[in-house]
């Protein structure tokens, strides 16, 4: 059995780590894990050893180094989202992407009452409990007796025993044993359509929302048909996928354009006009008009060559004055080489795969809809 902690997932948080606290352990370049503080025990990882007695009294969020000083860990206050990333898996679990959508679509708030069938590893259960606390309640049902007992002990350890009631019960055969008390019902079952009638009985007289999670589309079809037959409406199925984007800065070459004439005229539009006029004018005067800019090309080249040393000197002077500003120097260098920085965003090639379908529906009892 877990020791009972004085700190709840939904209650006041400790500033300092205490004996019996459940903490989330952050480790560099490693997945999140959890640790229940018990004086006399030792936590070990690839960085070394950490005695629980030395963790007690340390503030949350502080780097705590191992005895060999080769690495450190950080103890973080537990939340339902962090617990989902670190909990022990007894079954497959729902992750935060689906949990957030469920909480939103069911309209849960502090004071709400919700029923859950299929406790499993209690990932969603913690999210539901945190959403309805402190005055609401979660009734969660699990047909596997050992998993139900393990979940009940976890809720006690996390200080949620006043918010959560766990029952070992097969709701498909025996129902929820509740009538007219729930604002919402969640089903995570192999055959959720068998529990639809019991779920609707558990809803309050004013009705409420129901959600079913199923990994296969065939389950979704049968559940949706059953919901419609039972009088539900707004039956909607969705799939929540998380797509990550990468943001980075790249350097690209500036586009260089080739002038239509070899003269020193800086006005490209006038050069185009002269070229067109020359093409349409076969007289000697027209040929002379085109040849005139070309004749001045050597002079322009000489002037550009004579100005190059002065321009180079000015560039060096600017770089010397601003050499302490690394970003400005980089920008000048990119400009001198005809390159510029550009921030780009692109989706990653790999995307997290399918977890399951969420089917939502709304129900009102006949006595309500008829009035």
Question: Overall 3D geometry?
Answer: flat
> What string gives the helices and strands in order?
EEEEHEEHHEHEHEHEHEHEEHHHHEEH
| Class inferred from helices and paired strands | alpha/beta
Proportion of residues in helical segments: 25-40%
Query: What is the arithmetic mean of pLDDT?
Result: 82
Give me the Rg, rounded: 35 Å
Strand element count: 15
In the predicted model, the low-confidence regions spanning at least 5 consecutive residues are 1-6, 293-298, 309-324, 367-371
Number of helical runs?
13
Biggest sheet: strands side by side, in what order? 9-8-7-10-11-15-12
Strand content: 15-25%
Biggest sheet statistics:
7 strands, mixed
N- to C-terminal distance: 52 Å
Question: What's a quick, concise take on this entry?
Answer:
The chain is α/β, with parallel strands linked by helices and 371 residues long. It has 13 helices and 15 strands. Helix 9 (268-280) runs antiparallel to helix 10 (284-295).
Task: Please provide a written account of the structure.
The protein has helices at residues 52-55, 80-84, 96-106, 123-132, 145-157, 171-174, 196-202, 217-229, 268-280, 284-295, 297-321, 326-336, 366-370; strands spanning 22-26, 33-36, 42-45, 48-51, 63-65, 72-76, 113-117, 137-142, 164-168, 184-187, 208-214, 233-238, 245-253, 339-347, 357-363. With 371 residues, it is an alpha/beta fold. The strands form 4 sheets. The chain has a 7-stranded mixed beta sheet, sandwiched between helices. Strands 2-1-6-5 form a 4-stranded antiparallel beta sheet, with no helix packed on it. Strand 7, helix 4 and strand 8 (137-142) form a beta-alpha-beta unit. Mean pLDDT is 82; it is low at 1-6, 293-298, 309-324 and 367-371.
């Amino acid at each position: 059995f877990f020791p009972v902690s004085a700190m709840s997932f939904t209650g006041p948080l400790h500033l300092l780590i205490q004996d019996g606290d459940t903490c989330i352990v952050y480790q560099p370049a490693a997945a999140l894990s959890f640790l229940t503080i018990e004086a006399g025990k030792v936590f070990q990882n690839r960085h070394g050893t950490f005695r629980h007695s030395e963790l007690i009294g340390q503030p949350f969020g502080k780097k705590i180094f191992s005895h060999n000083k080769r690495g450190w860990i950080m103890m973080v206050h537990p939340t339902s989202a962090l617990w989902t990333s670190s909990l022990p898996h007894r079954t497959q679990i729902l992750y935060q992407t689906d949990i957030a959508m469920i909480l939103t679509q069911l309209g849960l708030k502090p004071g709400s009452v919700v029923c859950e069938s299929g406790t499993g590893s209690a990932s969603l259960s913690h999210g539901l409990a945190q959403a309805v606390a402190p005055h609401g309640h979660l009734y969660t049902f699990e047909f596997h007796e050992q998993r139900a007992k393990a979940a009940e002990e976890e809720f006690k350890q996390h200080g949620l025993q006043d918010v959560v009631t766990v029952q070992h019960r097969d709701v498909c055969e025996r129902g929820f044993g509740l009538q007219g008390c729930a604002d919402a019902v969640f089903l995570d079952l192999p055959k959720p359509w068998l529990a639809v009638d019991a779920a609707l009985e558990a809803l309050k007289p004013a009705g409420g929302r129901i959600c079913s999670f199923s990994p296969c589309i065939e389950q979704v079809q049968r559940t949706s048909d059953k919901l419609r037959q039972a009088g539900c409406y707004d039956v909607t199925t969705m799939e929540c996928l998380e797509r990550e984007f990468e943001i980075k800065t790249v350097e690209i070459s500036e586009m260089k354009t080739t002038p239509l004439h070899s003269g020193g005229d800086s006005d490209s539009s006038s050069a185009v006009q002269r070229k067109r006029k020359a093409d349409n004018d076969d007289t000697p005067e027209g040929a002379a008009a085109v040849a005139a800019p070309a004749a001045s090309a050597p002079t322009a080249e000489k002037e550009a060559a004579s100005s190059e040393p002065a321009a180079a000197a000015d560039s060096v002077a600017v770089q010397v004055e601003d050499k302490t500003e690394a970003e400005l120097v980089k920008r000048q260098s990119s400009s001198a080489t005809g390159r510029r920085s550009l921030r780009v965003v692109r989706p990653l090639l790999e995307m997290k795969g399918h977890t399951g379908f969420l089917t939502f529906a709304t129900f009102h009892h006949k006595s309500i809809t008829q009035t």
